[in-house]
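Q: How would the structure tokens look for this protein?
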Amino acid sequence: MMAALSLERTLRRYVRAEFLVIDDFAVLAMDPAQAKLAFQVISERYDYRRSTCITTNRAFKDWTKVFPDALNAQVIAERLTERAEHFVLEKGFRTARP
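A: Here is the predicted structure in token form.
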């Protein structure tokens, strides 16, 4: 019971934040529970028109390798890109410095 309340509070914080930054999204494979939580946060942020910034090294077409359900991956990608500005960096900013 307490764990469910704690999870609900945490999800609410992520959903209601004015601006959420998610670094390295869709890099590691997600199990169904993790994918469901990601979907819930992204979908609710989309509905509430909250700003979300993600960084990822994967093209959207490769997200099906990360999410257990291809439709889930597609819907999340659509929600993140529908009302969005896209910035694609050809070289990562974490390259070695001289």
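The longest helix spans residues 32-47.

The longest strand covers residues 19-22.

Upvote if useful.
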